[in-house]
Amino acid sequence: MTNLLEVKNLTVKFPTRHGVFEAVRRISFSLGRERLGIVGESGSGKSMTGRAILRLIKSPGILEADYITLEGKDLLTLSEKEMRRVRGHRISMIMQDPKFSLNPVMRIGDQICEGYRLHARASRAEAKKKTLSMLETVLIRDPERVFNAYPHEMSGGMGQRIMIAMMLIPDPQILIADEPTSALDVTVQKEVLEIMDKLVRERGMGLIFISHDLNVVSAFCDRVLIMYSGRIVETCRADQLHEATHPYTVGLLNSIPQLEHPVDHLEVLQRDDAWSKDPSVSGIVETEEIA
Amino acid sequence: MSQGNNAGIGLEHVNVWFGEHEERVDAVKDAGFAVPFGGSFGLVGESGSGKSTILRAITGLAPDWSGKISVLGQDLGQDRGKEFYSAVQMVFQDPYASLHPRQTVDRVLSEALSLHGFDTINDRIIKILDDVGLDQSFRFRWPHQLSGGQRQRVAIARALIIEPTILLLDEPTSALDVSVQAEILNLLTRLRTERGLTYLMVSHDLAVVGHMCSEIAVMNDGEIVEVLSVEDLRALKANHPYTRQLLDASVQKRKNE
Fold it and tell me: What ipTM was reported for this prediction?
């Protein structure tokens, strides 16, 4: 079995008045049927990486890569029309804030059905049945009521569950979750992560989990890429994140206050210019290792 | 305002509500706690638990409240005078929204000074920029030229430049990266020691509140369910089931599965 997704030398750049700004610089990584975390600070290029996979970089932004292959097929060679069949159908994306990703003037049920009918060419009744069962899978207690509700009637946690339902209904192989729980409270965060985890596991999907929260990533993912100013500075197994060696990762970990280990003065990250100049570390894993 | 013995902020049976009649929402119910002068007190809870509303009631941003709120030994009425605002200042959550986009750092700071009738404006601005760790070159910049951490430093400078004794902090670091959060928390700790400030801090992050505060009130659904010392919090000695649930969620985040 090959990797689900393989990205080689991906670069995203934006021309500005002061020259070209490179948001992502020649990064390579692969994704199997695993949970891959991408962490870094704001501006490190982690969200751009997620969007680049779906070729969602808007002009004048420029996307370059040797290849981005989905099960061996290079996404860069597809036409825009073919690409639309990939988005949602084979690779889905969940954004940070459900408030801004759901259509505020459309009933939730209709929004979920719309995507499904488009991709599966199903009848209205069939789509509704599927939607209701999907809402049940994301542990929404009263799917009929939610189906007929508008997004503003939902809380943040409910909204994010609805997003998960909507993204998983066409049965994609890869889910890209961009800070899916950052807008949620800790206790709700846990529930949403558990739901996502269960569904991804059951369906044998690949998950790219983008987050700035090192603790969540280390608890939730299998493997982590750590990004700094557009580069991957380190990759490691998620459960070994706390033994990371790159000074940036170590600095980030040390700057988090911990309840059980009180300190008078928090350690502050001392940035080193070399971090942004060194070549990117490869996040490609040969397939045998994953199994 | 007299600096009464030991009195920083005191709340007794405070209710805060929004709307009238059937639209009425009780955001805070029968809240009470006391922050000693020079102390540091934390309010934690989920969104919608009413923790920010308490800060807003103290500053007068939430006009419908009942009960007793006292600041520096004086009970507050519906109107707050200049004295109140020169003693109490607030730092808001989102530095991207709380600074006027079309005012330079200099204008933000000098406006606060002239409103409170300070002289030697120039010297004070130079000093406060120094105190919050911003280079003098930031003085004539616009907010959009600053990063999130720099903006929050400006917001803190804006609050402190009029030399208040009490600072209300509404999630001051939740919009920032952890590395920047550490810088801002260190800055707040240093300023509190240097100036002998009283802090009332709201956060959803138990670790942040545990780092900054000596006493913590846990809020759920508008009510304070438990007030505990930071030592008890660290030892995970919580009595109320909701506090325990909150502790579980934040400690478990760090442990693997």
Answer: 0.75
B212-255 per-position pLDDT tens digit: 999 999 999 899 999 999 999 988 888 899 898 888 877 765 55
**In the structure, what pLDDT confidence band is assigned to residue A288 with cuts at 50, 70 and 90?**
low
Each residue of B171-208: pLDDT tens digit? 898 878 888 899 999 999 999 999 999 999 999 888 89
Between residues A74 and A285, which one has the greater pLDDT?
Answer: A74
Best of A97, A241, A266 to disrupt the B interface by mutation (most B CBs within 10 Å)? A266
Q: CB A42 to CB B148 under 8 A?
A: yes
Residue of B nearest to A157 (CA): B47
Say what the pLDDT of residue B252 is: 60
> How high is the pLDDT of residue B124?
95
Please report the residues numbered 143 through 182 in chain A whose beta carbons come closer than 8 angstroms to any beta carbon of chain B: 156
pLDDT of residue A287: 61
Do B210 and A259 lie within an 8 Å CB cutoff? Answer: yes
Residue in B closest to A267 by C-alpha: B182
Q: What is the 3-state secondary structure (H, E, C) of A39-95?
A: ECCCCCCHHHHHHHHCCCCCCCCEEECCEEEECCEEHHHCCHHHHHHHECCCEEEEC
* Superfamily name and number for A5-90+172-290: P-loop containing nucleotide triphosphate hydrolases (3.40.50.300)
Give the model's pLDDT for residue A24.
Answer: 94
Pick from A90-99, A228-237, B39-48, B141-150: least confident: A90-99
Burial of A19 (C-beta count, 10 Å sphere; 0-12/13-18/19+): exposed
Q: State whether B177 and A41 contact (CB < 8 Å).
A: yes
> Nearest residue of B to residue A211 by CA position?
B177
pLDDT tens for each residue of B52-67: 999 999 999 988 999 9
Per-domain residue ranges of chain A:
5-90+172-290, 98-171
**B199-214 as b/e, with b when 16 or more CB fall inside 10 Å?**
bbbbbbbbbbbbbbbe
Interchain proximity B254–A212, CB inside 8 Å: no
CA distance A163 to chain B (A): 20
Cβ separation A264–B189 shorter than 8 A: yes
**Of all residues in chain A, what percent are helix, strand and coil, respectively (each to 5)?**
40, 25, 35
Interatomic CA distance for residues B123 and B118, integer angstroms: 11
Contact B19, B194 (CB under 8 A): no
* Minimal Cβ distance to B182: which of A189, A214, A267: A267
Domains detected in chain B: 41-62+78-252 (3.40.50.300)
pLDDT tens profile A104-141:
999 999 999 988 888 888 889 999 999 999 999 888 88
Residue of chain B with shortest Cα separation from A260: B234
